[in-house]
């Protein structure tokens, strides 16, 4: 049995980053954790059309894994197909956006989201509204870098520091969320730089998945 962390885009560098981010959690997990790439996905999920387009292939991918699964993590900050996968699977299904927001609300009163692009923000606002947590949102500010551009770690970290400081100092966020699975490499350094908790969503969702699987083993 395995916790499958599904990257719904086709960029292997994103999946590799997810795998490194969850690696320290493997020793605490009651089952193996495997990060997987959805080959049918776009290089980055940056539009609503991208979000909608990956749902069917992701559901098919997860259906093929169902028999050996303990849990699924949807590792895209738009949580594509989350409700559909929960309906399809008999196992726990966690979305990294939902999990990161819930985690952030245990770490502070006002969370700020660092998005990749300004065009991502309307999707996030719809989701936050549906979750009923808009009153806890300090702000959602973009790096204005696409998924592929996040591979330039020096440039990305400089933008993260600038946007994170703005969320902290101007929007008064006391927790920051990295709003893309392509930002996994930066949590520790950014948290040290900003001096406030920084939530990496793949870690947040995987931690919840580990907890759910462990609870099932107590029955």
From TrEMBL:
List where the protein spans the membrane: none
This entry's Gene Ontology molecular function terms read: amino-acid racemase activity
Matching InterPro entries: Asp/Glu/hydantoin_racemase (IPR015942), Hydantoin_racemase-like (IPR052186), Iso_Racemase_Enz_sf (IPR053714)
What Pfam families is this protein classified in? Asp_Glu_race (PF01177)
Q: Where is the signal peptide?
A: none
Assigned protein family: Belongs to the HyuE racemase family.
> What's the protein called, per UniProt?
Asp/Glu/hydantoin racemase
Q: Which organism is it from?
A: Sulfitobacter mediterraneus
User: Lineage of the native species?
Assistant: Bacteria, Pseudomonadati, Pseudomonadota, Alphaproteobacteria, Rhodobacterales
């Amino acid at each position: 049995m395995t916790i499958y962390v599904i990257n719904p885009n086709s960029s292997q560098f994103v999946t590799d980053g997810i795998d490194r981010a969850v690696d320290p959690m493997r020793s605490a997990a009651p089952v193996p954790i495997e990060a997987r790439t959805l080959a049918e996905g776009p290089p980055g999920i940056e539009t609503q059309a991208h979000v909608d387009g990956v749902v069917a292939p992701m559901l098919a991918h997860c259906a093929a894994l169902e028999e050996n699964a303990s849990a699924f993590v949807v590792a895209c900050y738009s949580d594509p197909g989350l409700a559909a996968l929960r309906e399809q699977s008999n196992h726990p299904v966690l979305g990294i956006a939902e999990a990161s927001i819930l985690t952030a609300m245990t770490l502070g009163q006002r969370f700020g989201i660092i998005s990749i692009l300004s065009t991502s923000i309307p999707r996030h606002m719809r989701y936050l509204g549906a979750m009923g947590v808009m009153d806890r949102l300090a702000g959602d500010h973009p790096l204005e870098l696409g998924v592929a551009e996040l591979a330039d770690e020096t440039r990305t970290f400089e933008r993260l520091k600038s946007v994170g400081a703005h969320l902290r100092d101007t929007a008064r966020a006391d927790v920051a969320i990295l709003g893309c699975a392509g930002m996994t490499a930066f949590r520790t350094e950014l948290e040290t730089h900003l001096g406030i908790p920084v939530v990496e969503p793949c870690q947040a969702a995987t931690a919840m998945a580990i907890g759910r699987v462990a609870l099932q083993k107590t029955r």
